[in-house]
């Protein structure tokens, strides 16, 4: 079946602009996660949704970052007033449910964001 | 101190060699442990979960030492296709987010 998909695959923007990154999880997966990965580092957690609600947003670095999942499926990560330090690969993952920490998280291919 | 620490490598080994990676974690209450594999410019994929009793999956063996807060991955009979970055991952108590180490890069040479 189809895996996690993310669009766009690449996004180049200028400092100060607004960007939206989209994630389409595996069908039937109620848990959705956003991570970001800088060069040479492991992914860092941003936010976790269980259904429509953000169950854990402790990884969002500041109030320029916001994410929604209005219908419990597709999620959008929104970044306002982008900064060069926001340049990274933004990864989305989904799992069957967030109720069990052993439920495997399946990752999408990521969106490579470059802020000039 | 990072929550999950790994030697970044690279580990350059010949085909057929046995190689071991180690990882330490700082939160003694961490409950779930994994190894993920990430190929260059690709997404991470689950390689195996790690259990206290140790577990094996073909050429791969994972061990957890809770007392020392230490996780290991052993790869026997290395293949060229094993070349990748191996990410050590823990889940803290009461959370669902994965906490990753920076990864250890393996390059298997012909």
Account of the 3D structure:
The complex is a heterodimer of chains A (116) and B (110). By secondary structure, chain A is mainly beta. Chain A has strands spanning 5-7, 10-13, 19-24, 31-37, 44-50, 53-56, 65-68, 75-79, 88-95, 106-107, 111-115. In chain A, the strands form two sheets. In chain A, strands 2, 4, 5, 6, 9, 10 and 11 form a seven-stranded mixed sheet that branches. Chain A is built from no helices and eleven strands. Chain B contains no helices and eleven strands. Chain B has 110 residues and is mainly β. Chain B has strands at residues 4-6, 11-14, 19-25, 32-38, 44-50, 55-57, 60-65, 70-75, 84-91, 99-100, 104-109. In chain B, β7 (60-65) and β8 form a beta hairpin. The interface between A and B is medium-sized, with 25 and 22 residues.
Write a compact overview of the structure shown.
With 116 residues, chain A is an all-beta fold.
> Residue ranges of chain B: pLDDT <50 for 5 or more in a row?
none
- Report how far apart the termini of chain B are: 37 Å
Treating each run of at least 4 consecutive H or I residues as one helix, how many helices of chain B? 0
> Roughly what fraction of the amino acids of chain B lie in strands?
over 45%
Query: Strand pairing plus helix content of chain A: what structural class?
Result: mainly beta
What is the mean predicted local confidence, pLDDT of chain A? 94
Helix count from the secondary structure assignment of chain A? 0
- Secondary structure: number of strands of chain B: 11
Question: For this entry, what is the oligomeric state of its chains?
Answer: heterodimer
Proportion in β-strands of chain A: over 45%
- The ordered string of helix (H) and strand (E) elements of chain B is EEEEEEEEEEE
Main beta sheet strand tally, sense and closure of chain B: 6 strands, mixed
């Amino acid at each position: 079946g189809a895996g996690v998909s993310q669009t766009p695959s690449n996004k180049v923007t200028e400092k100060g602009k607004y960007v939206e990154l989209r994630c389409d999880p595996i069908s039937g997966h109620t848990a959705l996660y956003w991570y970001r990965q800088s060069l040479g580092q492991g992914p860092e957690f941003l936010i976790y949704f269980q259904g429509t609600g953000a169950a854990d947003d402790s990884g969002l670095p500041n109030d320029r970052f916001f994410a929604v999942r209005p219908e419990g499926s597709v999620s959008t990560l929104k970044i306002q007033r982008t900064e060069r330090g926001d340049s990274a690969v933004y990864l989305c993952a989904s799992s069957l449910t967030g109720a069990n920490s052993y439920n495997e998280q399946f990752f999408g291919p990521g969106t490579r964001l470059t802020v000039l | 101190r990072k929550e999950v620490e790994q030697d970044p490598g690279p580990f350059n080994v010949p085909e057929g060699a046995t190689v071991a990676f180690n990882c330490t974690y700082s939160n003694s209450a961490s409950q779930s442990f994994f190894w993920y594999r990430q190929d260059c410019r690709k997404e991470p994929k689950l390689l195996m979960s790690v259990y206290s009793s140790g577990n094996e999956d073909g050429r791969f063996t994972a061990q957890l030492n809770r007392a020392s807060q230490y996780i290991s991955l052993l790869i026997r009979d290395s293949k060229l296709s094993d070349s990748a970055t191996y990410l050590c991952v823990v889940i803290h108590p009461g959370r669902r987010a994965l906490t990753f180490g920076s990864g250890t890069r393996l390059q298997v040479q012909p």
